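The material for today's practical consists of a large collection of protein records. A record pairs a protein's sequence with a compact description of its fold. Instead of coordinates, the fold is spelled out as a row of discrete tokens. We will come back to this pairing of sequence and fold again and again. Here is such a record, shown just as it appears in the course material.
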Amino acid sequence: MGELDTFVFNRYDKAIGHYEFILNSKPNFYDAYLGMAYCFHKLRLFDSAITAVDRCLDIRSDVGMAYYIKGLSAQSLNQKVLACDSFQAAGKLGLTVAVDSLSSYCQNYHPTTSN
């Protein structure tokens, strides 16, 4: 239901409720955190999106889309270092759209981490 409300009906508030319900019984279900992060981002709750991504990455650090959503939210908050580090990590995991963000948003960027 969370995915339907997220990607079909664009009911992000309702979808967050579904993801929270799932996490009450399966607290390590990284997909629920990723879905919540996307919803928070779409609702322009960028800090909440980053927090949800971080929870996802605590469970599984090889999810390029998580880093990408984190980068988009950080970019929306004008947090260039966090955004570019996140785009770089997503690109290293094969998410090609993140490479586009690196070349367009992160000009003259120098990595601060070894993601």
